[in-house]
Amino acid sequence: MDRYLVFGHPVRHSKSPFIHTLFARQTQQELEYGLAEPAVDEFAQALRTFFDQGGKGCNVTVPFKEQAFTLVDRLSPRAKRAGAVNTIKLTDDGVLLGDNTDGAGLVADLKSHGVTLGDSRILLLGAGGAARGALAPLLAELPSELVIANRTHTKAQQLAAEFCDLGPVTAQTYEQLAGPFDLVINSTSASLQGELPPLAPALIHTDIAIYDMMYGASDTAFISWAKQHGARQTMDGLGMLVEQAAEAFTVWRGIRPGTKQVLRELKRNLGVI
Ligand code: ATR
Prior knowledge:
This protein has helices spanning 16-27, 43-52, 65-71, 77-82, 102-112, 129-139, 153-163, 221-228, 238-253, 260-270, and strands spanning 2-7, 31-36, 57-60, 74-75, 87-90, 96-99, 121-125, 145-149, 169-171, 183-186, 209-212, 233-236. By secondary structure, the chain is α/β, with parallel strands linked by helices. The strands form two sheets. The chain has a six-stranded mixed sheet with strand order 2-1-3-5-6-4, sandwiched between helices. Helix 6 links the parallel strand 7 (121-125) and strand 8 (145-149). Helix 1 (16-27) crosses helix 9 and helix 5 (102-112) crosses helix 6. Bound molecules: 2'-monophosphoadenosine-5'-diphosphate.
């Protein structure tokens, strides 16, 4: 049977085996999908061993995405832009192809929530790997403006300079931000510590869409905060998780699974509904 897995550390709580097993059942594909948690300095060896032993493809998550970028034989254009790899496929001619489906997953999830990206003003919080992966797919939707704000302003400036050939992207400090924005995407890891990016509450209004790439069984700190300040449309990163997985599954198997039912099952599994 064709074997796939996700590499991460820690990875025990990954939902990817659950999601891909449902995709495989739905599309009647014969495959198995597992977990691998190599020591941080043993990822390269573990990856090699997996493919030497017949593995067909893998996902890569924190903290290995940047390392995976350097270990594959070939990169897709979107992985090259993202500077990170979250999906690897062994091609028929034995080449390890590195791809990145995170940004496509974000955009697909935003669209499935009915968020309009074309001609919109987008505020992206954070300038780490998650922000970098999101930029090209967001700019491809032709927003009127995309502003990056980050605690360490120089990182936002670097990112804006790197992507400004793709669209109207600029960097501003949190203090400089002036609304109204149509959509705020939180790509920071602040919610992991229950912290908030230092965003002025005045930027939140009833018609704004709020997206936190993090998720949990209950609202993230950022989503709770935005709701308190009047945001009516809030979304967490669970949908993005399922959509990036669907995109990876499509890369591997050449068949696109449906995501709605799988997202529902995942929410049930997490105790969200
Ligand atoms: P990832 O790959 O998930 O993006 P990362 O590269 O470590 O992770 O980036 C984390 C991002 O969250 C960074 O933009 C970080 O800001 P700095 O560049 O200033 O470190 C941001 N971040 C983390 N905790 C934060 C907090 N409490 N408030 C605001 N931003 C925070």
